[in-house]
Design brief:
This protein is α+β, with helices and mostly antiparallel strands and 107 residues long. Helices cover 61% and strands 19% of the residues. The protein contains three helices and three strands. The longest helix is centred in the middle third of the chain and has 35 residues, at 45-79.
Length: 107
Protein backbone atom coordinates (compact mmCIF):
# COMPACT_ATOMS: atom_id res chain seq x y z
CA UNK A 1 0.00 0.00 0.00
CA UNK A 2 1.28 3.45 -0.76
CA UNK A 3 -0.03 6.96 -0.37
CA UNK A 4 1.69 9.69 -2.37
CA UNK A 5 1.14 13.21 -1.10
CA UNK A 6 3.01 16.32 -2.32
CA UNK A 7 4.67 17.95 0.72
CA UNK A 8 3.26 21.41 -0.02
CA UNK A 9 -0.30 19.97 -0.18
CA UNK A 10 0.13 18.37 3.23
CA UNK A 11 1.45 21.57 4.78
CA UNK A 12 -1.52 23.55 3.39
CA UNK A 13 -4.11 21.21 4.92
CA UNK A 14 -6.55 22.96 7.25
CA UNK A 15 -6.30 21.95 10.92
CA UNK A 16 -8.15 18.67 11.55
CA UNK A 17 -7.98 17.50 7.90
CA UNK A 18 -6.06 14.43 6.79
CA UNK A 19 -5.33 12.07 3.91
CA UNK A 20 -6.58 8.49 4.24
CA UNK A 21 -5.70 5.32 2.34
CA UNK A 22 -6.94 1.78 2.89
CA UNK A 23 -5.87 -1.51 1.36
CA UNK A 24 -7.71 -4.55 2.69
CA UNK A 25 -7.27 -4.62 6.46
CA UNK A 26 -4.44 -2.05 6.49
CA UNK A 27 -5.08 1.66 6.76
CA UNK A 28 -2.93 4.79 6.69
CA UNK A 29 -3.78 8.32 7.82
CA UNK A 30 -1.44 11.27 7.22
CA UNK A 31 -2.08 14.72 8.68
CA UNK A 32 -0.28 17.79 9.98
CA UNK A 33 -0.73 19.39 13.37
CA UNK A 34 -0.90 23.07 14.33
CA UNK A 35 2.88 23.22 14.78
CA UNK A 36 3.47 22.03 11.19
CA UNK A 37 4.57 18.51 12.12
CA UNK A 38 3.59 15.65 9.81
CA UNK A 39 1.84 12.79 11.60
CA UNK A 40 1.40 9.37 9.98
CA UNK A 41 -0.75 6.71 11.66
CA UNK A 42 -0.97 3.15 10.33
CA UNK A 43 -3.32 0.41 11.50
CA UNK A 44 -4.15 -3.16 10.66
CA UNK A 45 -7.48 -4.69 11.69
CA UNK A 46 -6.13 -8.23 12.11
CA UNK A 47 -3.26 -7.02 14.33
CA UNK A 48 -5.65 -4.94 16.43
CA UNK A 49 -7.86 -8.00 16.87
CA UNK A 50 -4.83 -10.10 17.86
CA UNK A 51 -3.68 -7.50 20.40
CA UNK A 52 -7.18 -7.38 21.89
CA UNK A 53 -7.21 -11.20 22.24
CA UNK A 54 -3.81 -11.17 23.96
CA UNK A 55 -4.88 -8.38 26.33
CA UNK A 56 -8.01 -10.32 27.31
CA UNK A 57 -5.98 -13.50 27.86
CA UNK A 58 -3.42 -11.62 29.96
CA UNK A 59 -6.19 -10.09 32.08
CA UNK A 60 -7.76 -13.52 32.61
CA UNK A 61 -4.43 -15.06 33.64
CA UNK A 62 -3.67 -12.19 36.03
CA UNK A 63 -7.10 -12.54 37.64
CA UNK A 64 -6.69 -16.31 38.06
CA UNK A 65 -3.18 -15.89 39.48
CA UNK A 66 -4.36 -13.22 41.92
CA UNK A 67 -7.29 -15.37 43.07
CA UNK A 68 -5.07 -18.45 43.50
CA UNK A 69 -2.44 -16.60 45.54
CA UNK A 70 -5.14 -15.09 47.73
CA UNK A 71 -6.64 -18.53 48.34
CA UNK A 72 -3.26 -20.03 49.25
CA UNK A 73 -2.50 -17.23 51.69
CA UNK A 74 -5.92 -17.51 53.28
CA UNK A 75 -5.71 -21.30 53.70
CA UNK A 76 -2.20 -21.04 55.14
CA UNK A 77 -3.39 -18.37 57.56
CA UNK A 78 -6.30 -20.53 58.69
CA UNK A 79 -4.20 -23.66 59.21
CA UNK A 80 -1.16 -22.06 60.83
CA UNK A 81 -2.07 -18.97 62.79
CA UNK A 82 0.83 -17.43 64.74
CA UNK A 83 -0.94 -18.04 68.07
CA UNK A 84 -1.34 -21.76 67.34
CA UNK A 85 2.32 -22.05 66.31
CA UNK A 86 3.50 -20.25 69.48
CA UNK A 87 1.28 -22.41 71.68
CA UNK A 88 2.49 -25.63 70.03
CA UNK A 89 6.13 -24.56 70.44
CA UNK A 90 5.59 -23.71 74.11
CA UNK A 91 3.89 -27.04 74.85
CA UNK A 92 6.58 -28.95 72.94
CA UNK A 93 9.28 -27.14 74.92
CA UNK A 94 7.59 -27.93 78.23
CA UNK A 95 7.20 -31.62 77.36
CA UNK A 96 10.82 -31.81 76.17
CA UNK A 97 11.99 -30.14 79.39
CA UNK A 98 10.03 -32.58 81.58
CA UNK A 99 11.29 -35.61 79.64
CA UNK A 100 14.91 -34.43 79.84
CA UNK A 101 14.56 -33.69 83.56
CA UNK A 102 13.33 -37.24 84.25
CA UNK A 103 16.12 -38.76 82.13
CA UNK A 104 18.82 -36.76 83.91
CA UNK A 105 17.44 -37.65 87.38
CA UNK A 106 17.37 -41.38 86.52
CA UNK A 107 21.07 -41.38 85.78
Amino acid sequence: MSLTIPPDSLRKLPSGSSYHSRNGQAGLTVKSDAAGNIIAEASCDSLQRLVLCYEEELTRIRNETHEDSFTVETEFGRRFSPVKIALAAFITGCVAGIVLTFKIKKQ
